[in-house]
Q: What sequence folds into this?
């Protein structure tokens, strides 16, 4: 099999994986309110449990190095923000997300996974950009929704940047991104045709 065909198969697998994750996320957005409505679950006393679930899932999602698992935890946050305080959901998720990125930071510090990044076409540009902008670069990588933040963590670790200097802009970027997801996600859901079990 030629190298070109292998690359095509890899991209097809990645596309199917991402589509599957989006499907899981959308399924959760529909299933969560349905279960609350169907079983008449009182949500008032479940706030602390909801924050804990958001924290745990976001932590695990962000701890996966270079594996795109963003969509399910974002949809869980959006669904939870429809029932509980969206700011608190975003705050809890941002702390968990920043802590989850420690795995990428230490992978870079220990010299792991960098070989994978060197095959990424924009690797040299990212290295130069991160070197030039430092903390702002980490913030921008954390707030944007497309490139994995793991790249910033790997590069920060490899450059022996102090952990706190990586975590602070990473947390700030994630807080901004998750606030947009919680508030804008809810606004978009309210524009869709209403389901009988949505709050």
A:
């Amino acid at each position: 099999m030629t190298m070109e065909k292998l690359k095509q198969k890899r991209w097809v697998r990645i596309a199917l994986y991402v589509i599957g994750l989006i499907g899981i996320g959308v399924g959760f957005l529909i299933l969560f309110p349905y279960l609350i409505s169907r079983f008449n679950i009182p949500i008032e006393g479940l706030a602390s449990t909801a924050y804990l679930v958001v924290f745990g899932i976001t932590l695990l999602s962000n701890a996966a190095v270079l594996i795109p698992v963003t969509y399910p935890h974002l949809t869980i946050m959006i669904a939870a923000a429809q029932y509980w305080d969206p700011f608190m959901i975003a705050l809890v998720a941002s702390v968990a997300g920043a802590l989850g990125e420690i795995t990428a930071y230490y992978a870079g510090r220990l010299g792991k996974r960098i070989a994978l990044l060197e095959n990424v076409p924009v690797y040299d540009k990212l290295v130069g950009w991160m070197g030039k902008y430092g903390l702002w670069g980490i913030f921008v990588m954390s707030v944007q929704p497309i490139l994995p933040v793991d790249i910033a963590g790997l590069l920060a670790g490899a450059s022996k940047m102090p952990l706190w200097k990586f975590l602070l802009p990473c947390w700030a970027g994630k807080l901004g991104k998750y606030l947009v997801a919680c508030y804008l996600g809810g606004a978009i859901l309210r524009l869709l045709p209403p389901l009988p079990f949505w709050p």
Notes: The chain has a mean pLDDT of 76.
